[in-house]
Amino acid sequence: MSRLLPLFGFLVLVGLFGFGIWWNTQHDQHEIASPLIDKPAPAFALPVLGDAGTTVTKASLLGKPYFLNVFASWCIECVHEHPMLMTDVKQLGLPLVGFNYKDDPQAATAWLAEHGNPFDVIVADREGRSGIDFGVYAAPETFLIDAKGVIRYKRIGPITPEVIDKEIRPALAALAKEAP
Amino acid sequence: MRRWLLALGWLLLPALCVAQAIQPLPFRNHAEEVRFQHLSAELRCPMCQNETLADSNAPIAHDLRRQVFEMMQAGKSDDEIKAFLVDRYSQFVLYKPPVEPSTWLLWFGPLVLLAIGGIVVAVQVRRRARQSPADTTPINDTGDDW
Description:
By secondary structure, chain A is α/β, with parallel strands linked by helices. Chain A is built from five helices and seven strands; from the N terminus they run αβββαβαβαββα. Chain A has a five-stranded mixed β-sheet. In chain A, strands 1-2 form a two-stranded antiparallel sheet. In chain A, strand 4 (96-101), helix 3 (105-115) and strand 5 form a beta-alpha-beta unit. Chain A binds chain B through residues 29-30, 32-36, 102, 127-129, 131-138, and chain B through 46-47, 49, 59-60, 63-64, 67, 86-90, 92.
């Protein structure tokens, strides 16, 4: 029996390391779970992209759930995500608010002219200060904010068909259940 | 001569990169700078996850350094600044997580493992002592029995 002990220890280690490998394939290591989920979205007042005279605030968006998509013309992943925003995300039927993050307004406008504009309105956070309040650390990121202004879901990284089916649709279903 | 200049250039290259990476902040005095360096070395960059805020060249690290600096200028304490960042980026930004129920395993896990190892060794030693109490002479005293 005691001669089998090393083998037993070896198998335990194999199991442990195997679990570690499996765990890392299931989880994006770069993803930091946001502490803002189910908390009120931070207040913000940002100018509309290309129309600095108009300001959009958190209060002005209340009353209806919406997506807030963090994008930038310098963001490579955003190009990959963009077709999803143009079609699948739009078809979910919620307003799509663009959050142009640390971007040059002209570059952003040119980027949208090239790739298409899926957004109902775009706010520009040139300095990235509102981005810090939202806990943004990379683009793309997408928030689902409910009618009361509470962050219900956050996606870090591009939206894929799988993400829509496995995460966004259930989140929307939960929202629909609450609404009278 | 040219070779020496070239070598010097290569030597200075990393210094150049550092100079470009970290934009200088207008500190009021040396004590403030020391405090800033100390604080930003305790904070972790959310983007490039194995670098401190002090070392990282990611855009978000630059923004967060600016944020920390401005909060220091506004008279916030280190704890207030850390709380501000934890509220937005979770405890991930702290290189030294606080001791609380969710981090007990992290803090005390190694001690528990050490204790388990100690118990295993103690049990083994006792068992062997019981098996051969009389046999005190070494079987092989050349010292190279393996």
